[in-house]
Write a structure and sequence with these properties.
The chain has 493 residues and is of the alpha/beta class. The chain has a single domain (97-450), classed as TIM Barrel. The protein contains 17 helices and 20 strands. The protein has helices at 3-18, 24-31, 117-127, 143-154, 184-195, 218-230, 256-268, 280-289, 306-314, 323-334, 342-345, 350-358, 371-391, 410-421, 426-432, 435-440, 487-490; strands at residues 41-48, 57-65, 68-74, 85-88, 93-96, 98-103, 130-135, 138-139, 162-165, 169-171, 203-204, 210-214, 235-239, 272-276, 293-294, 318-320, 395-396, 458-461, 475-480, 483-484. Strands 1, 2, 3, 4, 5, 18, 19 and 20 form an eight-stranded mixed sheet that branches. It has a five-stranded parallel sheet with strand order 13-14-15-16-17. Strands 8, 10, 11 and 12 form a four-stranded mixed sheet that branches. The longest helix is centred in the C-terminal third of the chain and has 21 residues, at 371-391. The radius of gyration is 25 Å and the shape is globular. Mean pLDDT is 90; it is low at 1-30. The protein binds zinc ion.
Length: 493
């Protein structure tokens, strides 16, 4: 019998005696079976920010067993089982682990990178408290690659967040990203695959290590969706992009009929479709095709019109803004000292920074021409997020990891701060990173809040993120699927 329970028993016994009743034996009988939630891990004494929108709860214990939350109780109401791991969180703040819903392990562009790039991205995400992520294709992003990754994670060979996947993204030949950002030899290799593939089949770039399918007809697009559904993917990603403008704006736009066919086929398999867009006309095509959300904010102003915005809100249209992507194109070249941020350098090495410098990405002179463009784009996406948020459109945290200087895990904290700058309250920014992410992939039974039955993915902070969102960086510990993460072992790898 625990001290706390004894005290509770004494209190109730006293109440019975004072009332003159003779029910003492019954009361003592009740006292002999104290409530003991099942637990193999207990986070004790924290202020819990559960992300449902309820006020924070001080002095709270979170009980966890077999990777799931079993009870949330005022501290001391129940004692943990003797063999449970106790995580002392007195004075700390516990929120759900973060989600990054726009991740690529890399974009398949030439350049230096470790042999285990995918594993490194996963380790770093987890290190910084990202416990769920959505992969949107590109390197190691095919259905088969994602399934292989799940198997390796299941066997404990790879550590990382819970991985949600779309499989490869669907795009038209002649457009983004292959015909915009890829160098000619890769583009030629892709074209050779297209040439060797019947028109009504998706031309999968899997032999190039890329989760990208080039589709020329609605029939080919439907087949691609079927392959992803059969492989257990969680959503479908399409690329609806006539630019990006620095690569010319004359690339073909995915026809609305093809988008509709993809949405229709996906719905038959209970999957949602999310689109890469960057301009209003692409967003309008995606909306006309019936997609459930976009994975970039639109970087042209003025946008959205009130009508379009209201329509987006009515449709529960999820918008992953990727503000940190746009910001990354300017922030470090304008002020390279930001690369010295100790929180960043807990994982990112001198060699990596040097590689960006060698590639000319930190040379303000060389980048002078593109800086005004990216500054305008960043202002535009920031303004769009503010507008969409005002209109009630759900905003979801995503960073576009895989792009240069979008640092896995670290950028999720940058994105939180950008969202607050864009007009969300700290709680709303936290919800963008948690419950809104779970809603986006329709998995709210599993994650997104601190509630009984959910996956025990927890971020424990030394300071209150509701008082200042930058406190999300004050990480004391990370718990993923009910296990305390050994952050030191992940650091710098
Ligand atoms: Zn992306």
């Amino acid at each position: 019998m625990t001290t706390v329970w004894r005290e509770a028993c004494r209190a109730s016994t006293r109440a019975v005696v004072l009332s003159g009743s003779l029910l003492l034996p019954t009361v003592l009988g009740a006292c002999s079976s104290p409530p003991m939630p099942e637990a193999d891990l207990v986070v004790r004494g924290a202020t819990v920010i559960d992300a449902t929108g309820s006020p924070p709860r001080a002095d709270t214990d979170v009980f966890v067993r077999d990777g799931r939350i079993t009870a949330i109780l005022p501290t001391g109401e129940a004692e943990p089982p003797a063999d449970a791991t106790i995580v002392d969180a007195a004075g700390a703040f516990v929120m759900p682990g973060l989600s990054d819903m726009h991740v690529h392990f890399s974009l398949g562009l030439p350049g230096p990178g470790p042999d285990d790039q995918t594993e490194q991205v996963l380790r770093r995400l987890l290190y910084y408290g990202v416990t769920s992520m959505l992969n949107l294709g590109a390197t190691d992003g095919s259905t088969e690659s994602i399934r292989d990754l799940w198997a390796r994670m299941e066997r404990g060979e790879v550590q990382g967040p819970t991985v949600y996947g779309t499989g490869g993204h669907l795009t038209l030949p002649g457009t983004h990203p292959v015909w915009t950002i890829f160098p000619p030899p890769r583009r030629e290799a892709a074209q050779a695959i297209v040439d060797a593939t019947p028109e009504d089949e998706p031309a999968n770039l899997y032999p190039l290590g890329l989760g990208i399918s080039l589709v020329r007809t609605a029939a080919a697009a439907r087949r691609a969706v079927q392959e992803r559904a059969a492989g257990g993917m969680h959503a479908i990603k399409i690329t609806v992009e006539t630019g990006p403008s620095e690569f010319g704006d004359d690339h073909p736009l995915m026809p609305v009929e093809m988008i509709q066919a993809i949405v229709d086929e996906a719905a038959a398999h209970d999957l949602r479709v999310f689109a890469h867009v960057s301009s209003p006309h692409e967003l309008e095509a995606a909306m006309a095709g019936g997609v459930a959300g976009v994975v970039h904010a639109v970087s042209e102003r003025p946008f959205p019109s009130t009508t379009v915005g209201a329509d987006l809100a009515d449709r529960d249209f999820h918008t992953v803004a990727t503000l940190s992507l746009y910001d990354a194109f300017i922030r470090y070249v304008e002020d390279p000292s930001r690369l010295d941020d100790p929180f960043l350098r807990e994982t990112v090495t001198d060699e990596e920074i040097e590689a960006f410098a060698q590639a000319g990405m930190l040379d303000a002179g060389a980048e002078a021409d593109s800086l005004p463009f990216w500054r305008a784009e960043t202002d535009a996406v920031m303004g769009e997020v503010a507008d969409l948020h005002r209109l009630g459109v759900p905003i979801v945290l995503g960073t576009d990891v895989g792009n240069p200087m979008v640092f896995a895990g670290y950028s999720a904290h940058e994105e939180l701060a950008h969202l607050v700058k864009g007009g969300l309250t700290p709680l709303e920014a936290i919800q963008a990173a948690t419950i809104n992410a779970a809603r986006m992939v329709e998995d709210t039974e599993e994650f997104g809040t601190i509630e009984v039955g959910k996956r025990a993915d927890l971020l424990i902070l030394d300071a209150d993120p509701l008082a200042d969102i930058r406190n999300s960086r004050r990480i004391r510990s990370v718990i993923a699927r009910g296990r305390l993460v050994d952050r030191a072992a992940l650091m710098g790898n």
